[in-house]
Amino acid sequence: MSYIPPPSPLIHDSTIDLATFCFVAGLLFLSFSSFCFIFHLRFKSRSSRHLQNFNSLWTFRFLFVLFITFWALTELLRLPFFRSDYFYPLFPQLTVPQQANLCNVHLVLSLGFFEPGFLVTLLFLLDFSVKKSHRRTFFSVFSVLASCLSIFYLQVHVVFFPSAEKRFPEPFYRSWFLSWDSHDHETVLCSYPLLSTILFGVFVCLFTMSLLLSFWRVIAHVINKALRVRILALALTLSIGLPLQILLMGLSLFLTPESTVFNGVSLLVFLSTFSCAVVGEGILVIKPIADSLAAGGLDRDFMGESSCRSRPRIEEGDIV
After folding, report:
1. pTM across the whole model
2. Cα(16)–Cα(128) distance, rounded to whole angstroms?
3. Smallest Cα–Cα separation from 127: which of 144, 151, 115?
4. Inter-axis angle of helices 115-128 and 58-75, to 10 degrees?
């Protein structure tokens, strides 16, 4: 029987939740714009051979933005502000176990599938940019999904089948707390259990090593300074944002869930991934497609500029 923490009489401050909601709305708008760019290029490529070559990886761009979109939507599940203002008017008031399950679903989908999914897809886009021949799209997409299955399975096991309750202290597996909202209703605050944080940290370590290898392979082909800056900005954002996210998730274990500091740390955890998503969409999707469309797809490579020593024209598999 699972442990239910005692409720706290403190009122949950929804200001930070509202800020998170606004950031999610902004990211969804950016993702919608990315989808428009992807499909516009897809339609334009039907009448242009160069754009057809450039558009060869449209499936991965679409999958990349799709993962980010679902990750942003999943973040809404953990917000008491969103549950109270948008769930209750449409559905019966959620019970405490139902709200706890929403926290569990958020944890599994966010840290176990959607965020790892867009990170792995990003790696595929970088790797394909320097390859002259590529595997079939179906096999490559399957490889992306398969890469996420291991951490997804482990997160599901830790969150929904908490055998850790008998082996570890409560912070290792606790994913929610009970508190009171501004309407004097019991509400659940989501948290990050230590076991889930450790699992995601292992994934980030493997991802960071792969990112550095891909970064050096790509940078070796680039001679354009502006393009080098964009690639470096992407690598730095990921190399700083992801470890910071894990550090803040670990720090949240030592804070009182009802405190403003805890809410602020939760917002910073969100913003760490948010920054990676925004920079990734801007550099890997919007900017290169806009450059390619403006130039008619002629003599463009990798990020929309003539930048590679050995490939002065677009080839199948170029990212952007």
Report:
1. 0.84
2. 39
3. 144
4. 160
Tokens read off for 99: 């709200």
What's the CA gap between 39 and 55, in Å, rounded? 10
Q: Residue 81 carries which side chain, given as an amino acid letter? A: F
Alpha carbon dihedral 266, 270, 273, 279, in 10-degree steps, equals: -140
DSSP 93: P
Based on the number of CB atoms within 10 Å of its own CB, is 163 exposed (0-12), middle (13-18) or buried (19 or more)? exposed
Using CB atoms within 10 A of its CB, is residue 34 exposed (0-12), middle (13-18) or buried (19+)? buried
Q: Which two tokens stand for residue 283?
A: 């550099």
Q: What's the angle, vertex CA 176, arms to CA 172 and CA 179, rounded to 5?
A: 135
Sheet holding 186-190, edge to edge: 8-11, 176-180, 186-190
Distance CA 121, CA 144 (A): 6
Q: Residue 112: name the closest of 203, 241, 188 by CA.
A: 203
Q: Please report where in the chains the tokens 């179906």 appear, as a residue.
A: 138
Residue whose token pair is 């079939």: 136
As a whole number of angstroms, the distance between CA 260 and CA 249 comes to 15
Reported as a single tens digit per residue, the pLDDT across 187-232 is 788 889 998 999 999 999 999 999 998 888 888 877 677 778 888 9
* Residue indicated by tokens 């569990």: 104
